[in-house]
Amino acid sequence: MILAVLRSILVWGAITAVIATALFVAAGSEYLQYRTPVYVTAGFAGVVALSLLLVQPLLAAGLLPGVALRAGRRLHRWTGVALMLAIALHVAGLWIASPPDMLDALTFTAPTAFSVLGVVAMWALVAAAVLAGIRKRLPLRPQVWRLAHTVAASVVVLASVAHAILIEGTMGTVSKTLMCAVAVGSLVLTVGRLKPWIGTRRGWRKQLTK
Predict the structure, then answer these.
(1) Residues 21 and 181: beta-carbon distance below 8 Å
(2) Which structural domain, as residue segments, surrounds residue 131?
(3) pLDDT, position 205
(4) Which one, of 168, 190, 189, 164, lies nearest residue 177 by Cα?
(5) Burial letters for 61-76: b for 16+ Cβ neighbours within 10 Å, e otherwise?
(6) Which string of b and e fits 96-105 if b means at least 16 CB within 10 Å?
(7) Residue 66 phi/psi, 5° resolution?
(8) Number of other residues whose CB lies within 10 A of the CB of residue 16
(9) What's the distance, CA 138 to chain centroid?
């Protein structure tokens, strides 16, 4: 019992510390001195979105201490909605701040890799959200749906991490790297726990033997 409580405190304390540090460093960044309020809001929406990616996978797999699997999956859906809203605010704010740059990014003609990766992450998030929204209407085996959703979510995390790492902006190098490492670690732990490919392989084998 005591070990479980200590583990819960350590895990939640570590997650809180990583997110709080990233937000604190971003708030004091020198890059914000000459930026408009719209641009600042868009930037912080991106930091919030990256913060949500730390816990979003863990909730789906029931890996957060003190949160039951069923409750975690409900929270996973709500944090997914929050993630969509944060990304929408991020994109809308950047569009208002600089329409030509956003147009180049959205049409994959931007000269910077981080712009392309950001758009890839955005569309992968849309794909994951659509799959979640129409899950019961799709004529797919649950295992196939789970694999498709996991692949889309993995692209979201990996492309978002690469997007953040390549940007020299408000997030500090150390805090940003730590947050990205934790996000990737959360994804790896979740995929390792759920193993969505196992059930899918069995499903395919059954289809092939019919």
Answers:
(1) no
(2) 2-209
(3) 46
(4) 164
(5) bbbbeebeeeebeebb
(6) ebeeeebebb
(7) 85, -5
(8) 10
(9) 24
- Whole-angstrom distance between the N-terminal and C-terminal Cα of the chain? 50
The tokens for 158 are 């990996």
What's the whole-number average pLDDT of the chain?
Answer: 87
Interval 108-134: pLDDT, tens: 998 989 999 999 999 999 999 999 888
Q: What sign for the dihedral angle of Cα 163, 82, 152, 104?
A: negative
Residue 164 tokens read as 């953040």
Paired tokens of 24: 């604190």
Instruction: Answer for the pair 104, 116: CB distance below 8 angstroms, yes or no.
Output: no
CA distances (Å), origin 175, targets 30, 55, 153, 210: 15, 17, 23, 53
Residues 6 or more apart whose CB falls under 8 angstroms from that of 2 comprise: none
Prediction pTM value: 0.87
Number of domains in the chain: 1
Instruction: Please tell me the distance from the alpha carbon of residue 183 to that of residue 169, in angstroms, as a whole number.
Output: 19
Cα(154)–Cα(24) distance, integer angstroms: 27
Find the largest Cα–Cα distance for the chain: 65
Centroid of chain to Cα 8: 22
Contact 44, 177 (CB under 8 A): no
